[in-house]
UniProtKB/TrEMBL annotation:
Identification of the protein by name: Diguanylate cyclase (GGDEF)-like protein/PAS domain S-box-containing protein
TM regions (residue ranges): none
Residues in EAL domain copies: 23-276
Amino acid sequence: AKGDGGNKYQFYANSMSLDALDSLRMEGALRRALERDEFRLYYQPQVDIATGAVIGVEALLRWQPQLGPMIAPDDFIPLAEQTGLIVPIGDWVLATACAQQKSWRDAGLPPLTVSVNLSARQFQHRDLVGLVARLVRDTGCDASSLALEITETAVMENPQAAVAIFRQLSKMGVRLAIDDFGTGYSSLAYLKRFPIDSLKIDRSFVRDITDDTDDAAIVHSVIALAHSMKLKVVAEGVEDARQLQFLREHGCDQMQGYYISKPVPPAGIESLLQNR
Ligand code: C2E
Ligand code: CA
Ligand code: CA
Ligand code: CA
């Protein structure tokens, strides 16, 4: 949106970088988006590799402005994180995902674990455990069918705090997954201290799994080590049958990716389950 403000912004542009100005405008737009209820959750199915059953979904945030095309999270979450707006946005995501899980259960759909992405800011901000407990109570969703995904990098910002929060969430029955595994600097030995249920292998490793021997070796050893620690392994970004074949042969537990389905609105999950 650089330059579309015309001369009106000349005064500011002199004292502030254009990027800062863009950020300010964007921050205002994000605030209004929350007030106007412009956020949506899409859901991507997660499949049990051994049985082919859809056993869960990952909730992925979208911004649908009243006018214009839908906006992907990579285009607004970084700013939402910087400004702290990710906290109220994240509260909305959690509440919406919990309500969705309850409504699918009431509709008689097979039980689905709904996974929600958490940012580091939501972790540090305040009483995440209290918030989740309240949401589970208020929406009537099933805590053990709720999974929280947090990136390896976010965990490593403050591992002590993360361990404490994870312990409390885990006591409530909430499932915990380390997201984008392999892109950060933690070691599996270190993660042993965390009461987590699964690791999600980042898409960047899955992409070339059938051509790149290094990526193949990484995925292979992550699966073996994770299993030795009784963790489930979920592969993200599976796009074709050969990748799936590799993962199956190496005992990966679950997968998600365009090969099965892109993220879709809730109704898309319902028809996917009815047609399987
Ligand atoms: P992520 O958690 O690693 O999510 C996986 C991303 O990969 C999603 O992008 C998904 O649409 C995409 N993806 C899934 N399968 C495939 C595939 O087969 N091929 C390709 N090329 N891509 C695939 P999306 O929805 O654009 O989300 C991007 C990132 O934004 C997420 O990465 C996550 O870090 C963040 N995000 C999304 N929703 C939320 C949210 O509610 N809260 C927070 N804090 N972050 C979120
Ligand atoms: Ca994720
Ligand atoms: Ca990822
Ligand atoms: Ca990510």
